[in-house]
Write a structure and sequence with these properties.
single chain; 225 residues; alpha/beta; Rossmann fold; three-stranded antiparallel sheet; 7 helices
Length: 225
């Protein structure tokens, strides 16, 4: 995929990226920070009661989900080990133009850039309680057995099924179920019936939740053994 992103302003004042080749945005035009907070932090991270949490993210993209997770963890004092897989990392020139630090916490700007500059394939200490491992790889060819530990929370933030259908397959959700620990949570902005059925086929218990502004519903799936 030849990614040539265009920076756009969303309704909550934060940026998103538009990919003309896919006619797709990285985040909701109704509010990028608002959407990520609602779907991944409120419906996902905050529902994990562990003190040492392994987050596995599908789609590092702009780094917004990782940044919001890092900021949220400053309040909790937990340990977060964050693994994110991304096939098409963004160029530095794009990253430096995004306004997430400005909109969230200006004094955390260096931490945001540290997330992006972290070396792929190596665990990087971002703060004393947040550790990031980035994997530059295609999820459709990823060996889930390579991950070092089970995931407690999975952020599934791939492009929409009609834009990137090979990321929304039974094989992928079977792999994510395998990756999840008992009680593991998977959250995604997508609430399509076909996606929910694949999650259930994989073994997850699913629930529809109210979506962020602009979306009626989202999905949360839980692994129960």
């Amino acid at each position: 995929m030849n990614v040539k992103p265009v920076i756009e302003l969303t309704a909550d004042g934060s940026h998103t990226l538009f990919i003309p080749e896919l006619n797709e945005h990285y985040h909701s035009v109704n509010g990028a920070i608002q959407e990520s907070t609602h779907v991944f932090i409120e419906a996902g991270l905050k529902h994990c009661e562990k003190d040492d949490i392994h987050v596995f993210e599908v789609g590092f993209g702009t780094g917004l989900n990782a940044f919001l997770t890092l900021l949220e963890n400053r309040k909790s004092g937990k340990i977060i080990r964050y693994t994110s897989i991304e096939a098409y990392p963004l160029a530095d020139i794009v990253i430096k133009k995004l306004n997430y630090p400005e909109r969230c916490l200006p004094m955390a700007q260096d931490m945001y850039y540290k997330l992006h500059s972290a070396e792929s394939g190596k665990e990087t200490e971002i703060t004393g309680d947040f550790y990031l491992t980035k994997i530059e790889a295609d999820l459709t060819r990823f060996d889930f057995s390579e991950t070092r530990e089970n995931a407690d929370v999975i952020y599934f933030d791939a492009f929409a099924p009609d834009k990137q259908p090979d990321m929304w397959t039974q094989e992928i959700f079977d792999g994510l179920y395998y990756l999840s620990g008992n009680g593991g949570i998977l959250v995604t902005y997508c609430a399509k019936g076909a996606v929910r059925r694949m999650m259930r086929q994989a073994g997850f218990t699913t629930e529809r939740l109210p979506g962020p502004p602009g979306k009626r519903e989202m999905l949360r799936a839980t692994k129960r053994i």
